[in-house]
Amino acid sequence: MNGVSKITVTDDVALLTFHNIPNDWKILSQIFTGLADAQVNLDMISQTAPQGHQIDLSFTLRAGQLVEVLGLINRFKELHAGLFPMVSNGNCKIQLYGEEMRELYGVAARAISAVAGVGAELTMISTGEVEIALLVPQADCAEAVHALEEAFQVSADA
User: Fold this and answer.
1) How confident is the model at residue 158 (pLDDT cuts 50, 70, 90)?
2) How many beta carbons lie within 10 A of that of residue 41, not counting itself?
3) What is the mean pLDDT of residues 27-45?
4) How far apart are CA 112 and CA 132, in angstroms?
5) pLDDT value at position 85?
6) Region 7-19: what's the mean pLDDT?
7) Read out DSSP for the chain?
């Protein structure tokens, strides 16, 4: 029982982060609705806890939609001048899945240690009850996947 039964890899993933934006659900709703209306599939959505009335918001998307999304964000900036995204392109998402994670502690620690052990940069982490998603630069992807395969004795899906 190691907690992981499947590893998948998604290449060509972009990360957008907005720092210090208002913790205003009307603004966030406009952003998410605009992206949904443009048929942009967001993944790994992460929000920090409010710091005063500000939050940081990050999400990933297919790199092929990045130009379109930046165009949409320019329209959002007309309504909300403080929206300036930081963009990180050229990433891969490594997803670890396992029903055992629901009841097993230490899976995330082992995954993070495996990636750290090969010196791969870990850009973002998101989790669910039975999954852990790790975003790493494409240049570190193969080495990080290999380390995770060894740590969990599971071959990644090609």
Assistant:
1) low
2) 10
3) 92
4) 10
5) 86
6) 96
7) --S-SEEEEEEEEEEEEEEEEE--HHHHHHHHHHHHHTT---EEEEEPPPBTTEEEEEEEEEGGGHHHHHHHHHHHHHH-TT--EEEEEEEEEEEEE-GGGGT-SSHHHHHHHHHHHTT----EEEE-SSEEEEEEEHHHHHHHHHHHHHHHT-PEE-
Residue 138 tokens, joined: 């494409």
Please state the three-class secondary structure of 110-155 as a single string: HHHHHHHHCCCCCCEEEECCCEEEEEEEHHHHHHHHHHHHHHHCCC
**The model's pTM:** 0.91
Name the residue among 79, 97, 93 with its Cα closest to residue 41: 93
